[in-house]
Amino acid sequence: MNTSDKNTCANCGKEGSDVTNTCNKCKSVMYCNAACKKKHRHKHKKECERRVAELHDEKLFKQPPPKEDCPICFLQLPHIAVYMSCCGKYICRGCTYTVQSRATKEEEDICPFCRSPPESYDDEEVIQRYRKRIELNDVNAIYNYGYFYANGENGLPQNMAKALEFWHRAGELGSAEAFCSIGNSYYNGDGVEADEKKATHYYELAAMLGDVVARHNLGCFEGNAGNVDRALKHFTIAVKDGSSESLESIKIMYTDGQVKKDIYADALQYYQEYVDEIESDQRAKAAAAEDE
Fold first, then answer.
1. Which one, of 28, 33, 88, 35, lies nearest residue 52 by Cα?
2. Digits of tens for pLDDT over the chain (292 positions)?
3. CA-CA distances (angstroms) from residue 178 to 133, 145, 175, 184, 213?
4. Where are the domains of the chain?
5. What DSSP line would sit under 40-68, residue for residue?
């Protein structure tokens, strides 16, 4: 029986264009009807589970796209950027520093992108700005609002249930950081019962969307479980996205004899390529000013 033929029922062997009932999980075999699918289930189960695991790993270990560019300098945003609640933009610190260093005293904290006046230190005004962005389904505002609840900031009470509510909403809209925060909550038992399996699930969702912290955490989980190859895959993806922590982990794996020298050398090159991609004179000046 040729079960790879999409026009052949994996159970009875019937062929034809009406064989369209696909396995819901692996999508790799087809049946002529639900009865055949049910009858074949016990024979297909092991192969189905294997294929589902393969499909999951294909998604999990795919290098995510790079972060968006700064809307001012058009260089890839680094992991630390400034969120502007007036326009909903993330601005790199280089552009923020350059614009504000050239501004007059009255314009000192003006938004580098939309030129709106800065947030005041009044909690109510901050919250009002964020609520306007949330009404527009601004995923970053929704995530940050959850963060305010998690830490009891800007006049909001500390409330992890509300924080998780906003993070779940942001995650559904594609926020990698929100999924990572939910993962942290399950890992630490913060607002929910500690559950490493659920933490792993949310870290995976975050990692597939490009969160390097979640990716690094997954690498640590796999390393602690003795799964060196899977740990290395996670760390390598994270290094390509600029994780110095994952680079250090690969260095330790090399020192311990778990990976070869050329693998560590490749990781060093990947990290340098990331640094070259995001660095600029403006960002270097901003970093120097912050260190003063």
1. 28
2. 344 445 799 999 998 888 889 898 898 899 999 999 999 999 999 999 999 999 999 999 999 988 899 999 999 999 889 999 999 999 999 998 888 777 665 566 788 899 887 666 688 989 999 999 999 999 999 999 999 999 999 999 999 999 999 999 999 999 999 999 999 999 999 999 999 999 999 999 999 999 999 999 999 999 999 999 999 999 999 999 999 999 999 999 999 999 999 999 999 999 999 999 999 999 998 888 887 6
3. 16, 11, 5, 10, 12
4. 1-42, 68-118, 225-278
5. HHHHHHHHHHHHHHHHHHHHHTSPPPPPP
Please state, as a whole number, how many other Cβ atoms lie within 10 Å of the Cβ of residue 124. Answer: 10
Q: Residue 217 burial (CB < 10 Å; 0-12/13-18/19+)?
A: buried
Q: What is the DSSP letter of 71?
A: T
Q: Which amino acid, one-letter code, is at 255? A: T
The pTM score is 0.88
Contact at 8 Å (CB) between 97 and 109?
no
Give how far Cα 72 sits from Cα of 21, 36, 116, 221, 279, Å: 50, 58, 15, 38, 14
Dist CA 92 CA 244 (whole Å) = 19
The DSSP secondary structure of 58-123, one letter per residue, reads HHHTSPPPPPPBPTTT-SBP-SSEEEETTTTEEEEHHHHHHHHHHS-GGGTT--TTT-PPPP-S-H
Structurally, what CATH architecture does the domain formed by 68-118 represent? 2-Layer Sandwich (3.30)
